[in-house]
Amino acid sequence: xxxxxxxxxxxxxxxxxxxxxxxxxxxxxxxxxxxxxxxxxxxxxxxxxxxxxxxxxxxxxxxxxxxxxxxxxxxxxxxxxxxxxxxxxxxxxxxxxxxxxxxxxxxxxxxxxxxxxxxxxxxxxxxxxxxxxxxxxxxxxxxxxxxxxxxxxxxxxxxxxxxxx
Length: 165
Hints:
This protein is α+β, with helices and mostly antiparallel strands.
C-alpha cells in the first residue's frame, strides 16, 4: 500500500505546501518549527543526527502522500514523530495505519530498540485510537502542555514495546 523513501531537499516545497497554517504546523511538529515553514528550517532539521526522515509513497500510483520520521532518542528508544498524510482528501483512508506499520517495522530492524514512543495531542482521537490498536499505551507521566493562540493542548506520550506488540 505504501513505501517509505528518504526525504530530501527536493521534497521541501511539497511538505511546505501541505502546512497551510500555524495550527497545522504545531499539530504536525509541536514546537520544532516556526510558521511559515521554510527551506532553512528544513535543511537544519535534516542535518540533525539520529533522524530517519521519510516521504510516504502510495504504491498504487507512485504519488507522494505523506511525511514521517523515526528519531533515535537513546540507544534503546526511538520516537515516531512528524507524521502527516499531506493531502486532506487522502486522510481517513487507511494510509495512517499503513504508515505506522511501516514505521514500526523500520524501528524494529534495529534489534537494540526496546521502546517505540510517540506524542499525540489528547484531542486527536482518531490518531490515539489508531495507535492503541497497534499496541501503544499511554505513559502516565508523559503529558506536556503546548499553547496555540488562546488554547492549551495536552500532548500525551505513548509507548509500545516491540516484543509485546
